Amino acid sequence: MDTLLEASQNIEIQTTNQIETKQTVFLSRDRIGSFCILCCSRGRPMEVIDSSICFRYCLYFKGTITAITAVALKDALFYYIFLITTIIYNIALLLRNDFCAVKTFLANSLNTEADKKQFSLYKPIGNNLIFPTLVIGDKTFGRLLEASKILNIIFECVEIFNHIFGVVILLMNFSTVLIILSALNTLLISGETNILTVEVVLNCICESTIFMLWNSFIISACGLLKRESELVVKLCCKLQHLLPQSSQERKELLNLANQVNRKSPTISAFGFFDVDFSLIFSVFAYVGTYIVVLIQFSHIDF
């Protein structure tokens, strides 16, 4: 009997040690569910768990909640940038279409074609140059004055646009540069520490590409707006050459051209720089400069 009792006690002690070992393994891997099952299987209430273990799992839950919150904030930020980019892009295109409408209005006022590809100052026929025929009616001068008022309204809309979205466009350009440099820095550090994975590479490439596309959409829309305003000036200069020297319509067309040149309806990034097609090359130039600096400070041999 004594031998059987000692054997049963040894078996119980070994079982207890195995359970303790399993608990240690599960605790080291932060497997809360398995730990709770082991505690219940031994009849140990949860209230008697050591305070350090409770603190550890509190930190685990806090870390999980923090990670989830960070991911949610990141997704919300991406969604906000997507929405604001869409709004800026569409408003800039609307302003550009307004300038196109002014061009058509001016050409219709003088019975000419507004399309820059069709309209020309001279039409060569054989060895002669034929001027397009302009018809000046009683309402032509009034329509030109109305075009001037429409341009003033468009200029005010451009100023309001710059006031509202100038800071956003400025931050968007800075964010694009920082995202690209941060992605490159992450790739370089991951390559140096031998922890570079496909997931890291795809994440960096996707974030950089998304920000570059969004920023390119904004810049392209603002560039089209500026180009269309320049075409209005060219159209006014072409039309005024076809009018009599002393006519009021000619003077009004010159005033329209000077008005557009003087007010220069361009999109500005809060006054720091103008947003047009040249900004795309400037951004790539800045990024290329800092890429060279990052590569020089890295320890990777190419």
Index terms:
302 residues, 7 helices, elongated, 2% strand, two-stranded antiparallel ribbon
Give structural notes.
The protein is mostly helical and 302 residues long. The protein has a domain at 88-297. It is 75% helix and 2% strand. It contains 7 helices and 2 strands. It has helices at residues 2-28, 32-41, 51-109, 140-192, 198-240, 248-263, 278-297; strands spanning 123-125, 128-130. A two-stranded antiparallel sheet has the order 1-2. β1 and β2 form a beta hairpin. The radius of gyration is 35 Å and the shape is elongated. The chain crosses the membrane at residues 77-95, 164-188, 200-225, 277-297. It is found in: Cell membrane. Gustatory receptor which mediates acceptance or avoidance behavior, depending on its substrates.
What is the compact description of this entry?
The chain has about 300 residues and is mainly α. Helices cover about 75% and strands about 0% of the residues.
- Average pLDDT over all residues: 76
Q: How would you spell out the order of helices and strands? A: HHHEEHHHH
**Largest β-sheet summary:** 2 strands, antiparallel
Cα end-to-end separation? 77 Å
Record field, number of beta strands: 2
Counting DSSP H or I runs of 4 or more residues, the number of helices is 7
Which range does the strand content fall in?
Answer: under 5%
Which shape, going by the Cα principal axes? Answer: elongated
Major sheet: order of its strands? Answer: 1-2
Unreliable residue runs? 22-53, 114-122
* Range of helix content: over 70%
